[in-house]
């Protein structure tokens, strides 16, 4: 279980505003984390130093078959207990402390380690698929192991986050030394003082990472629905719920990312009624079947997944978000400036409509996960 | 008034200075309270308060506002244990030897949890939404959600949804039979439902042949007496409701006196004219949950799985467990009826002492079904004590998909809750079958008033939702964080699943 | 144009229309002051039939001027007291000499003597009262009397 300080994540619900940025190479070309740092740094005013974080895809090619667990520990004792759990459930290919450098503004950091693991097949083979097993192990550590928090658990990707301004967090983790084909970044502006590293974005489960700007008014409707499907929302944050909803729809239900977006930010009924027959039937079905997973209230999110990236606004577009494209590169940010600073000349730049997902995948692959 | 009687609890007070002897009070009182006396000088109208039920008909029709009904200040020696009510009931029963009868909902001073719950609104971090400028969705689909998705060979999702009810707003008119209420009341409900895109419910009285045309907006009920049930009837409605219980009288059947079984009503109910229509307390083919499941599937087979089946139960102590059983029985929708729910006639002791509040029952059921992972298998309709759009918002946030409105609908039609339905002499033309009284409810007026009320509430719901930054009712459903308790104890908050205000 | 229409299906025979009509003619502020201890002489009358309709309810019927397009009363009026103004049949009591021709010629019995019996009175849709709209329709509790435009 996570260590809870007074008024920290998991005890109260903390509304927040934020900055988000993401960049993605459709060709899978790897580039340094330097760009994403610059991009999020220019939106400094959209954060207040109480949380920043990054997701980086394609950074661990040497361990790309392994689940890369990034874990916060409160102390050595917690780490010892957690490692015992990992030993029992996984083959650990490699483990190390995540390299950091001293940054003046970053304090009170926990122990930060990473483990490249593969689950023991015999543990799950007759009961569930591999991903489900890994996800359940993550849930178990996060809910039952005091002082331990797995904040990244996907393959060939890593989440780096903490309390501080995002650019300071990036320097702390030496993000510029990582090379990936996709980066997302988040600067947080909570209205309260959470002061807990696990509460920063991105929120991640398996290959999914979510960064989010907004405050969803459907929170408890979504939370209670998703908990019914076996998820445990420990942090009381919107982002956690959104991440689980995406995991549920995309991984467990087998919807494509596009279809998942239509559930999360469903078109208004009046729009659905004007659609051609086939589309109308599909949208009506999705809204009726997953009514509890409609996300209401202002949000802009960037979702990283196995082979792509999705950006989505709430259906009224109550949060700013622009998309820029240049050659094979895709840029998404809360503000245009955060794109222009990296790529001053773009092929195109536009603001997607509310509820209309922007999806880019590696080499144009499908955005669906497996089959139903 | 004899020696074993009591002074009327309500007195008719007439202002003789302003009364112009138009005699409308006399003409319009079915209880014969008012009488005109030209033999005295000056000629005067007199009132017999012993007959008055305080229905307010004369008060409101009096063109010079010369009438009012007041609570009598005749008093027994004050006693907090033996109240006037208790004493009078004993006097009555000692005279009659009978069960006390009353109607409409439980009027006793139990806590009203809706009044101890407040609603949230957005400030700063989340903009509120103006329903006059932005879309605001109140449409609800009631029915069972699929557990698995299927894709066709083309990879497209295939619709595997069972039958659903589509409601333009999260309200339905609850079951009130033709017999317990009048033809004109039914016509008003049917026409209003059609115009609003919602549903009314036949209750256990069958469906009058003239109302088959409103079938798309009708829920047909199958209750323990099976009155009026036949194949065409089942097919006529948009959904079928199995009535297991009623909030006003859990565990009790129904009794429509023979004198109300006249003509059309006898034909519609398929019972002989003049003979009492008695609905048994239980369904005699349902003594347990597996029997219920058989009836659910019998009805589904009969209607070729084209209609959702609702199972309506009274809110009683173990309602959550019962609802869980129903959710697994094949039913598509569960209707919960709280102990404030109305009735055309019920034994007073039952009405006032049996069952639990809908707020607690609803919260318990929603929580239990979620714990068991089967909340999506059924829609939940909550009824019995919903008085306003704010109550609806609270009910939906507690976990209801929609609400049943009975008493509120009757109030819109003119009812003033005199709670004398069982006499069959409703002065407002609602709970009566006397042609002269039935005529008093003009459905052209009645349906419009129902439409007005529902539209007003819909608008209020939209405003409240907009204030919370929610633009679709499904994001309100079960969203208990939008509610806070005020002045509730830990247990109550626990059952309701709410935080206290300030938390 | 808007006229008064009555519908016996919904008429309860409460006679309120008669009182509101009588009161409207007085132009007073209070019905109690205007009508207390007075015999009223309204321009609308309720017929209470000793009959029952198909549903078994007593039949009542409000009788009020229909403002005929070709009214016999106006045709027969020898002084020109009755006239049609904007579709409304009105009476100028200054010109009326109380010959009763109109009373005899109206097939509906909607023209009748005023209180003094010397001049006639009839419904003028409350155009000449301070109330502005027909009070019988406005105060009918069951919409059995309506004031509407049916073309």
What descriptive keywords fit this protein?
heterotrimer; A: 372 residues; alpha+beta; Glutamine Phosphoribosylpyrophosphate, subunit 1, domain 1; seven-stranded antiparallel beta sheet; five-stranded antiparallel beta sheet; 18 strands; 28% strand; disordered N terminus; C: 151 residues; Alpha-Beta Plaits; two-stranded antiparallel sheet; 5 helices; 24% strand
Describe it for me?
The complex is a heterotrimer of chains A (372), B (503) and C (151). Chain A is built from 11 helices and 18 strands. Chain A is α+β, with helices and mostly antiparallel strands. Chain A has one domain: 4-Layer Sandwich (Glutamine Phosphoribosylpyrophosphate, subunit 1, domain 1), CATH 3.60.20. In chain A, the strands form 4 sheets. Chain A has a 7-stranded antiparallel sheet. In chain A, strands 11-12-13-14-18 form a 5-stranded antiparallel sheet, covered by helices on one side. Chain A has a 4-stranded antiparallel sheet with strand order 5-6-4-7. The N terminus of chain A is likely disordered. Chain B is α/β, with parallel strands linked by helices. Chain B contains 15 helices and 23 strands. Chain B has an 8-stranded parallel sheet with strand order 11-21-20-18-17-14-13-12. In chain B, helix 5 links the parallel strand 13 and strand 14. In chain B, helix 4 crosses helix 14, helix 8 crosses helix 10 and helix 11 crosses helix 14. The longest helix of chain B has 26 residues. The radius of gyration of chain B is 24 Å and the shape is globular. Chain C has 5 helices and 8 strands. Chain C has a two-stranded antiparallel ribbon. Chain C has a two-stranded antiparallel sheet with strand order 2-3. In chain C, a hairpin with a 5-residue loop joins strand 2 and strand 3. Chain C is globular, with a radius of gyration of 15 Å. The relative contact order of chain C is 0.26.
């Amino acid at each position: 279980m996570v260590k809870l300080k007074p008024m920290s994540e998991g005890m109260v619900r903390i509304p927040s505003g934020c900055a988000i940025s993401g960049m993605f190479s459709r060709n899978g070309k790897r580039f340094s984390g330097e760009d994403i740092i610059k991009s999020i740094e220019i939106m400094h005013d959209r954060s207040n130093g109480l949380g920043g974080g990054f997701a980086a895809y394609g950074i661990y090619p040497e361990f790309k078959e392994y689940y890369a667990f990034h874990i916060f520990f409160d102390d050595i004792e917690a780490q010892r207990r957690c490692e015992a759990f990992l030993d029992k459930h996984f083959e650990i290919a490699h483990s190390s402390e995540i390299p950091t450098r001293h940054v003046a503004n970053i304090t009170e950091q926990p122990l930060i380690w990473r483990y490249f693991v593969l689950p023991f097949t015999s543990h799950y083979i007759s009961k569930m698929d591999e991903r489900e097993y890994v996800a359940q192990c993550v849930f178990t550590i996060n809910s039952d192991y005091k002082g331990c928090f797995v904040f990244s658990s996907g393959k060939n990707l890593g989440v780096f986050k903490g309390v501080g301004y995002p650019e300071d967090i990036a320097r702390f983790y030496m993000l510029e030394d990582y090379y990936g084909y996709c980066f997302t970044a988040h600067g947080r502006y909570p209205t309260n003082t959470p002061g807990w590293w696990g509460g920063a974005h991105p929120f991640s489960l398996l290959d999914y990472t979510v960064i989010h700007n907004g405050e969803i008014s459907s929170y408890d409707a979504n939370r209670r629905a998703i908990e019914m499907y076996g998820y445990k929302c420990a942090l009381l944050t919107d982002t956690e719920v959104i991440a689980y909803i995406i995991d549920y729809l995309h991984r467990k239900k087998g919807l494509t990312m596009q279809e998942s977006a239509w559930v999360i930010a469903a078109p208004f009924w009046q729009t659905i009624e004007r659609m051609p027959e086939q589309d109308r039937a599909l949208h009506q079905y999705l809204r009726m079947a997953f009514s509890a997973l409609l996300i209401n209230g202002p949000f802009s999110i960037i979702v990283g997944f196995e082979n792509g990236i999705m950006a989505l606004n709430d259906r009224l577009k109550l949060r700013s978000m622009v998309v820029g494209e240049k050659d094979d590169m895709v840029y998404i940010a809360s503000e245009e400036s955060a794109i222009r600073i990296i790529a001053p000349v773009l092929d195109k730049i536009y603001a997607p409509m509310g509820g209309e997902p922007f999806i880019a995948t590696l080499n144009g692959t499908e955005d669906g996960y497996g089959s139903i | 008034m004899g020696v074993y009687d009591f002074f009327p609890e309500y007195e008719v007070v007439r202002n003789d200075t302003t009364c112009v002897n138009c005699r409308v009070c006399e003409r319009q009182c079915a209880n014969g309270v008012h009488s005109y006396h030209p033999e005295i000088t000056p000629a005067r109208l007199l009132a017999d308060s012993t007959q008055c039920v305080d229905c307010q008909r004369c008060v409101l029709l009096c063109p010079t506002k010369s009438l009012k009904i007041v609570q009598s200040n005749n008093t027994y020696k004050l006693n907090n244990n033996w109240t006037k009510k208790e004493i009078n009931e004993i006097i009555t029963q000692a005279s009659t030897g009978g069960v006390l009868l009353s109607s409409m909902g439980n009027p006793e001073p139990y806590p009203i949890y809706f009044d101890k719950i407040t609603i949230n609104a957005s400030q700063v971090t989340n903009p509120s939404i103006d329903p006059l400028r932005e879309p605001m969705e109140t449409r609800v689909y009631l029915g069972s959600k699929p557990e698995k998705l299927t894709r066709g060979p083309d990879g497209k999702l295939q619709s595997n949804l069972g039958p659903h009810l589509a409601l333009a707003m999260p309200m339905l008119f609850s079951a009130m039979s033709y017999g317990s209420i009048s033809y004109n009341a039914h016509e008003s409900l049917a026409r209003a439902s059609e115009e609003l895109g919602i549903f009314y419910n036949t209750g256990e009285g069958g469906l009058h042949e003239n109302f088959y045309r409103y079938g798309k907006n009708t829920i047909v009920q199958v209750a323990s007496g099976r009155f009026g049930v036949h194949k065409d009837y089942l097919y006529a409605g948009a959904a079928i409701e199995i009535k297991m219980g009623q909030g006003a009288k859990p565990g009790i059947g129904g009794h429509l006196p023979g004198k109300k079984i006249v003509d059309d009503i006898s034909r519609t109910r398929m019972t002989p004219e003049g003979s009492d229509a008695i609905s048994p307390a239980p369904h005699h083919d349902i003594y347990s949950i597996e029997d219920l499941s058989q009836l659910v599937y019998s009805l589904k087979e009969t209607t070729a799985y084209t209609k959702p089946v609702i199972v309506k139960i009274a809110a009683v102590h173990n309602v959550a467990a019962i609802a869980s059983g129903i959710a697994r029985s094949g039913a598509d929708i569960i209707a919960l009826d709280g102990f404030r729910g109305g009735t055309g006639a019920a034994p007073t002791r039952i009405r006032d002492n049996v069952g639990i509040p809908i707020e607690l029952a609803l919260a318990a059921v929603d929580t239990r079904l979620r714990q068991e992972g089967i909340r999506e298998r059924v829609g939940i309709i909550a009824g019995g004590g919903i008085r306003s759009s704010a109550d609806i918002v609270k009910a939906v946030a507690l976990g209801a998909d929609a609400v049943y409105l009975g008493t509120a609908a009757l109030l819109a039609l003119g009812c003033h809750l005199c709670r004398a339905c069982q006499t069959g002499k409703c002065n407002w033309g609602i709970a009566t079958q006397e042609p002269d009284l039935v005529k008093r409810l003009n459905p052209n007026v009645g349906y419009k008033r129902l439409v007005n009320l529902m539209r007003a509430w819909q608008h209020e719901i939209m405003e409240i939702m907009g204030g919370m930054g929610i633009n679709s009712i499904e994001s309100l459903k079960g969203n208990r964080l939008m509610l806070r308790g005020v002045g509730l104890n830990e247990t109550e908050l626990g059952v309701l699943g709410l935080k206290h205000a300030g938390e | 144009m808007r006229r008064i229409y009555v519908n016996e299906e919904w008429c309860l025979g409460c006679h309120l229309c008669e009182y509101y009509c009588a009161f409207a003619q007085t132009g007073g502020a209070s019905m109690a002051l205007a009508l207390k201890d007075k015999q009223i002489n309204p321009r609308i009358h309720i017929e209470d039939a000793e009959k029952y309709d198909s549903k078994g309810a007593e039949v009542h019927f409000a009788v009020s001027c229909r403002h005929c397009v070709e009214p016999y009363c106006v045709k027969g009026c020898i002084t020109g007291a009755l006239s049609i103004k904007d579709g409304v049949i009105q009476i100028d009591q200054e010109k009326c000499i109380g010959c009763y021709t109109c009373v005899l010629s109206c097939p509906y019995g909607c023209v009748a003597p005023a209180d003094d019996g010397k001049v006639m009175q009839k419904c003028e849709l409350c155009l000449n009262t301070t109330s502005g709209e027909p009070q019988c329709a406005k105060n009918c509790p069951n919409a059995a009397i309506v004031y509407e435009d049916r073309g």
